[in-house]
Amino acid sequence: MRTETASPDEVTAPPPTDWSEARTRVHAVGLAAALPAVERPLAEADGHTLAEPLTPRTDLPAFPTSSVDGWAVRGTGPWRVTGRVLAGGVAAPLTEDGTTVEIATGAMVPVGTSAVLRVEESTRTADGLVDGVPRATPEWRRPGEEATAGEPLLPVGTPVDPAVIGLAASCGHDNLRVRRQPRAALLVFGDELLTEGPPGGGRVRDALGPAVPGWLRRYGCQVSPADVVGPVADTLTAHVAALRAALGSVDLVCTTGGTMHGPVDHLHPALAELGADYVVNTVAVRPGFPMLLAQVVGADGRARFVAGLPGNPQSAIVALVSLVAPLLAGLTGRPLPALPHVTLAEPIAGRGDHTHLALVRLDRVAGTAHPVRHVGSAMLRGLSAADGFAVIRPGSAGVAGDRVPVVPLPLLPGERAW
Ligand SMILES: Nc1nc2c(c(=O)[nH]1)N[C@H]1C(S)=C(S)[C@@H](COP(=O)(O)OP(=O)(O)OC[C@H]3O[C@@H](n4cnc5c(N)ncnc54)[C@H](O)[C@@H]3O)O[C@H]1N2
Ligand code: MOO
To answer: Where are the alpha helices (DSSP H) in 283-354?
Structure first.
């Protein structure tokens, strides 16, 4: 891994990192700093990541289980009824041929059962015996049919979703060992930013303070309202103080603006003052080029991260999907997200030796990507109509019909469903 210490005059900057390499490097650095494993009750485990493989505590099912309502019979019929077993009960063995117990779906099949006869396929003789022909295929689930005790079912790094939680419960777990969820703060830089009312008179609305926490939460981060701070005054002292305070309580501090070297761009000098090391300092991608990721090792020896998102609002989101998403995957012990591929419906220009991340709308039925309009780096209109960014590799242009990777926005089901 290449790291350099921030220097106050970074105007002669190092060469930008290739976009794909930046993703891979940031993910690897995140994995190396993976958050500690903690126990969470199942009811609180949604959205976490497994820190140990999921294994059943018993065979699944744990006992032979009837899959129908009917009769557990022994030997050939007709059968004399000796009792009944319901789901949740412990069945007494069937010890004599020609006997049966009434059995409910989900009930334990008694030892000695030779077949289970469905109730609707059974008849009663005049003297009260049960008669019928059991199906040839077993009507009960064998122990271990789904899984055997201790069998690894899901690996470390699996995101915990309701399906995983349900499986864990059926495996007999009360708690799951998961990675602690990352905590993030957001510092908004820029004296020109208004936090209410219409823009004008040289000032624009802060569009990132209200939006970035929602994106971070969709990536599985915890962001408390108190950790969204800004606009932070455009002085080096205020930047250093804000960064220091935030780094004291979270794993990742995202900043917006001030990544360049303008008269009031203080991020690089502030990182130098904090003794931060760059993981990535500028990326060969358009838009979003001045994005950065730096790490600061705390007194406890644990790395905390600063993601510098450029001030241009769309560029800030490019930095989120390019650097912050892989970092968070690493910190939670998840693999680097694989990029799905789609077919371009229309041409998309290349950006020379930079990767071009171009906002696209996906047609999920056709599997095609359509460029959206209003995609200037200072604009957010295109983003609000897009599903993600098509990746146009350096030195290439997108031609209609090309298969290209897409970096999805972390949208929830139902969003963009119009
Ligand atoms: N001499 C050069 N100047 C710039 C270059 C360059 O290569 N050479 N690159 C441009 C690119 S690309 C970007 S991206 C921006 C990044 O600049 P900063 O990260 O330092 O951001 P600022 O200067 O603070 O702001 C840029 C722009 O974005 C607006 N902004 C900032 N924060 C917000 C916010 N929270 N909500 C809405 N809009 C925001 C700000 O008002 C500026 O218009 O640098 C270029 N310059
Ligand atoms: O990289 Mo800037 O982000 O092109 O606007």
So the answer is: 313-319, 325-331
Q: Are strands 228-232 and 184-189 parallel, antiparallel or unpaired?
A: parallel
Angle CA 125–131–136, to nearest 5: 170
Name the CATH superfamily, with its identifier, for domain 39-58+146-179: Molybdopterin biosynthesis moea protein, domain 2 (3.90.105.10)
The domain made up of 65-141 has a fold known as Molybdopterin biosynthesis moeA protein; domain 3 (2.170.190)
The two most distant CA atoms of the chain are separated, in Å, by: 100
Contact 390, 342 (CB under 8 A): yes
| Beta carbon of 377 within 6 Å of any ligand 2 atom | yes
Q: Provide the H-helix boundaries in 274-402.
A: 313-319, 325-331
**Which residue, by CA, sits nearest to atom 8 of ligand 1?**
260
Asked whether the predicted pLDDT for residue 2 surpasses 60, the reply is no
pTM, full prediction: 0.92
How many Å apart are CA 31 and CA 174, to the nearest integer?
Answer: 27
Q: Per residue in 224-237, pLDDT tens?
A: 999 999 899 999 99
Nearest ligand for residue 194 CA = 1
Under 8 Å between Cβ of 320 and 314 = no
Which residue's CA lies nearest to atom 6 of ligand 1? 260
Please state which CATH class domain 341-408 belongs to. Answer: mainly beta
